[in-house]
Amino acid sequence: MKFQVLLIALVLIAIEANAAKQGKNATIPALIVFGDSIMDTGNNNNLPTLLKCNFPPYGKDFPGGSATGRFSDGRVPSDLIAEKLGLAKTLPAYMNPDLKPEDLLKGVTFASGGTGYDPLTAQMMSVISVWDQLIYFKEYISKIKKHFGEEKAKDILENSFFVVVSSSNDLAHTYLARALTYDRTSYPNFLADTAVQFVRELYKLGARRIGVFSAVPVGCVPLQRTVFGGLLTRGCNHLLNNMAKQFNSRLSPALDSLDKELDGVILYIDVYETLYDMIQYPKKYGFEVADRGCCGKGTLAISYLCNAFNPFTCTNSSAYIFWDTYHPTERAYQVIVDSLLDKYLKKLY
Ligand SMILES: *[C@@H]1O[C@H](CO)[C@@H](O)[C@H](O)[C@H]1NC(C)=O
Ligand SMILES: *[C@@H]1O[C@H](CO)[C@@H](O)[C@H](O)[C@H]1NC(C)=O
Q1: Topology annotation, domain 29-217+238-271+338-348
Q2: Signal sequence span per UniProt (predicted)?
Q3: Model confidence over 185-229: pLDDT tens digits?
C-alpha cells in the first residue's frame, strides 16, 4: 500500500515536472531578431547591394541544399536559437515577399548582412540599418494586430525573446572611415552606447526580454588574418580584437544597469570567449581547420567571391569553424548557441 502511494506520487511528480517544462518552453511565443549577417536569413536578397549570398555553394548544408540568403553553409543563429526555444527549425526573413500572416507568429528576423550600429555602415553597404529594422518591426506589430488582434500583439511584445547582434562590420570596416573622428577606444564606446540606445528604443516599443550579443573576435576571421596577419603567420589582428573587447567592456555593465532599471530581462550575451576558445583550440570542439574558410581557398572568398565556379570549396564543412572568410559554419554556430542555453536562455523563463 505504502509502495503504491509512493509510486503514484512519483508518477504525479514526473507528470507535473514534464508539464512545467513544456509550459515553460511555451511561454516564449516568438523570436524577434535585429542585426547583421550573423542573423540574416535572406533580408538582403532583393536589395541593391553586393552583400548577398543567395547562390551556391552558400546553403549547401541547408535543408534541400538551397541558397536562401543565409551567410553560411546551413542555418544561422536566428534559426538555431528559434529551435532551442522550441519555436521552429528556421526563422523567416521579414523581407521575404512570400511570407503569409501566419508565418509571422513565431517571429522573424529583420537582420541585414553588412549592417552595423553605426548608421554609416549600412549606408556604405546599401543595406538596412538597425534603426530602419525598428521601423520594419513597427510594421510587423501592426500586421500582427490586424490579422490576429491586440491581445496577440501584446503577448508577442511582452513575452518574445528579442535578440540584437551587430558591431563586427562597424569595427572591421567602418572604423577605417571614422578614424579621423574616433580612436580605438572612443569608437567601440560610441558603438556600445548606440547599442544601449537601441535597446531603450526597443523597450519603448514594448519589448521586455532582450538579449544583446557581445562583439566577436572579429580580428581572427580568415579575411583579417590574410590582410593583417602576416603573409606566412596569418595570425589574428589583435588591434581589432582589442576594439571588440573594448566594446564588450563598455556594453556589459551598461546592460546590467539597464536590467536593474527596466522591467523585464535585459541580457548581455557573451559569445567572444566561446568563439575565441574554439579558434584557439579547434580540436577540443571537433574541428580541424580554424584559420581558413571552407568556401574557395578560404583566405579571401566572401559573398560573390564564394561561388559555384570556385573549384576549391571543401567537401566537409563540419570540419571547419569558418564557412567563408568572414562567417562561421552552421556547426560552429551550433556549438556557440548550445553554449548559450544554460548560461543565458534559462534566465528568460
Ligand atoms: C525547448 O524545447 C526544445 C524542444 O523540445 C528543446 O530542444 C529546448 O532545449 C528547450 N529549451 C529550453 C530553454 O528549455
Ligand atoms: C567531417 O568532419 C567532422 C569533424 O572533423 C568529422 O567528425 C566527420 O566525420 C567528417 N565527415 C565526413 C563525411 O568526413
Answers
A1: Rossmann fold (3.40.50)
A2: 1-19
A3: 999 999 999 999 999 999 999 999 999 999 999 999 999 998 898
